[in-house]
Amino acid sequence: MEKIGKHLKQQRLDLGFTLEAMSQKTKISLPQLREIENGNLDFFANDITYLPFMVKAYARALYVDLKDLPSDVDQLVDVYYHTQELKLSEKFDQIHESIDSKTRSKRPHHHQVRSEIKKQKFEFSQLTLILIVLFIIISTIILTISFVLPLFKKEGGTNTTPPITGLPDKPDDEDPTQPNIPDDVIEQHLEITQVSPTEYAISNYGAEQEITLSMEFNARTWIRVYINDVATDNPVSKIYKPDEKIEVIIKAKPNDKVMFHVGVVRSNVFRVDTEVVTLDESIANLNSGAKINFVFAGD
Questions:
Q1: Most buried of the four, 26, 32, 41, 232, by CB within 10 Å?
Q2: Domain locations in the chain?
């Protein structure tokens, strides 16, 4: 990336353009152009999937043939991820070595281990004895209640228990405390219909019914969500990792639309409430971006 940045910067200087002029021409922000020329991949951590497009657009604006660039622009994302993996691997190795070092320094001596084992055996014996004593006491109490007390009651005379009164005349009478559920209450079940490979219609919903559209990530990708063609920051637009999940809760109204602009479609799962949406085969395994639309059907 540094070689590409230097090449583009030299071309801009040769043409006599300023960064401000190129920002106006390409519609790419001034900080982004500056970091492209500096070759700073970390600056684009949250927009890394769009970096190749920005670099190509900047190169075209400077009249640079992509074949003349010192390295493949399309490999920038893979290079970034590979670099991050190497950094994480080095960090994990350091942590592992630190843990091993501390473990060796705190490992008890042989005689200490034997002492601990003897102590545990002694404590276990005491606990066993206490449990046996408790079992004998509890058994004695149960036997006394079950056999001795009834003998005293029989010797005590006749049963003075008062008769039970207030029973209903008809045992099958309706309980007034139970709610009456109307027979015409029918639970609604959402229906999801594919309109096109990237559009799915939601129907059979109630008025102002709260519906949750969610996406479970099984592949690392960038995403932005639009509600009625307006970008929303809830959920936040960024790169999500596997096992993460986002949710969009919306009160359903006819013709409302929720769009998921996804950097990588492959392996990720969409749901409407609890129902999994089966994507069209033409986009289900895409390693590139797509715009998946969910539209609430009208009357």
A1: 41
A2: 2-80, 191-296
